[in-house]
Design goal:
By secondary structure, this protein is mostly helical. It has two domains: 1-183, Growth Hormone, Chain: A, CATH 1.20.1250; 186-388, MFS general substrate transporter like domains (Growth Hormone, Chain: A, Up-down Bundle). The chain has 16 helices and no strands. It has helices spanning 4-33, 37-40, 42-61, 67-87, 91-118, 125-153, 156-177, 189-194, 199-219, 222-230, 237-259, 263-284, 288-304, 306-316, 322-348, 355-390. The chain is globular. The relative contact order is 0.14. The mean pLDDT is 85. Its main location: membrane. It is a multi-pass membrane protein.
């Protein structure tokens, strides 16, 4: 794999760390600014919404900029947002810093996916995308726990300062290692927008929202589920998240490897197994060992869908994939926000802390149904194309010559 993928992975590591580390630092931030925990939670919501909005916005603004230069500009925006967060004199300024940093998120992964795929041979594209996303998954194993530990013991401002420094390393790596990639000639914004007329692109994005949403329906409420249902101590939740992160790393690499060989079968297996495991989590959550194993499996199966779904969008939006790729990253965050909201509804309705697992299983099952529908439509369109190419009217038998 080219060294340029390492630079992209470093940038992804920084972005993944800043996205998730705030969840473990909400009490410290709330205490410093004198706001409630739910108010501090706006730092999570604001970031997610910033990704959803920023993914298409920043990609559209960058349509006339070479991809390497755009990646560098996005890392600069990421650095600025985290520095603003580190020195924020008021909660509102911290929220602005979070949103500024989030604007770079979707476009970085969207453009980065296109660049990663272009750096390797056609049969290695999903693996290259997975290599870049490894930075995001490793962030959940190393960056988030370490950032939380530093924030709790030294100060949350130090955490954001260190994340900004990571951004500087990523920026330098991109400048040094990523080759110049001029903007593709003849591709304009209207070409990028035309990709959204393709039903297969929209189906892939819907699979992204529902499939990854299934993961976060359960993981968003992992703390109360593990402490109140499984019986873990509060301090053990961090280690549960590390297990989840380790599962993500393994699933991401496996998903990238097998998506290059058999993309749709990989989606069938990962989404189907994810639905089953999430449903079983309602039972395994009552046992410490079974719960820990299940959490790792959810991380692995959930992230095994990421490289094939991202490659599916790139394949279906061929010729003008950048905007569709970035919007698909926003779809992951939309799924996170939607599933967290639905999980909160069932808990508030009195169904218990394991109820979000049923929500997640339902979402993953819906994603599997969409995958089957997508493949069926593709086979139908392929058959029609074959008929047209042979010159035989649809619905009539092919003439036999003796």
């Amino acid at each position: 794999m080219p060294l340029a993928l390492l630079a992209l992975a470093i940038g992804a590591f920084g972005i993944g760390t800043t996205e998730f580390v705030i969840m473990g630092l909400l009490p410290e931030v709330a205490g410093d600014f004198g706001v409630s925990i739910p108010t501090a939670g706006l730092l999570v919501t604001g970031y997610a919404l910033g990704v959803v909005i920023g993914a298409p916005l920043m990609t559209v603004l960058g349509t006339k900029v070479p991809r390497k230069r755009m990646l560098m500009l996005l890392m600069g925006l990421f650095i600025a947002g985290n520095l603003l967060s580190a020195v924020a004199p008021a909660f509102a300024i911290l929220l602005i810093g979070r949103v500024v940093a989030s604007l770079a998120h979707g476009a970085f992964f969207g453009i980065g996916s296109v660049v990663a795929a272009e750096l390797v041979a056609p049969d290695k594209k999903a693996g290259a995308i997975a290599m870049m996303f490894t930075g995001l998954t490793v962030a959940n194993v190393v960056g988030v726990p370490l950032g939380t530990l530093i924030g709790q013991n030294i100060g949350w401002r130090v955490t954001f300062g260190l994340v900004a420094a990571l951004g500087v390393v990523g920026l330098a790596g991109i400048a040094k290692l990523v080759p110049e990639m001029p903007r593709q000639e003849g591709v304009h914004l209207r070409h990028e927008l035309a990709a959204f007329k393709n039903a297969q692109v929209l189906l892939a994005m819907a699979m992204t929202v529902l499939g990854f949403g299934g993961v976060f329906a359960a993981i968003t409420y992992i703390a109360p589920m593990m402490t109140h249902v499984a019986g873990f101590a509060d301090g053990s939740v961090t280690w549960m998240l590390v297990l989840f992160g380790l599962g993500m790393v393994g699933g991401n690499l496996i998903g990238g490897k097998f998506a290059d060989r058999a993309l749709m079968p990989m989606l069938y297996v990962s989404l189907g197994a994810l639905a089953v495991v999430l449903a079983l989590f309602t039972l395994t959550a009552h046992n410490k060992i079974a719960a820990a194993v299940t959490i790792a499996l959810i991380g692995a199966l959930g992230f095994a869908t990421v490289p094939p779904l991202q490659k599916r969008v790139l394949d279906q939006a061929h010729g003008a994939p950048t905007l569709a790729s970035a919007v698909n990253i926003g779809a992951f965050n939309l799924g996170n926000a939607l599933s967290a909201w639905l999980g909160g509804i069932v808990i508030a309705a009195g169904f218990g802390y394991t109820a979000p697992d049923w929500v997640g299983a339902s979402l993953a099952a819906a994603a599997l149904l969409l995958a089957v529908l997508s493949a069926a439509l593709e086979r139908r369109d392929s058959a029609r194309s074959t008929v047209v190419a042979s010159g035989t009217p649809a619905g009539q038998p092919t003439p036999v010559h003796h």
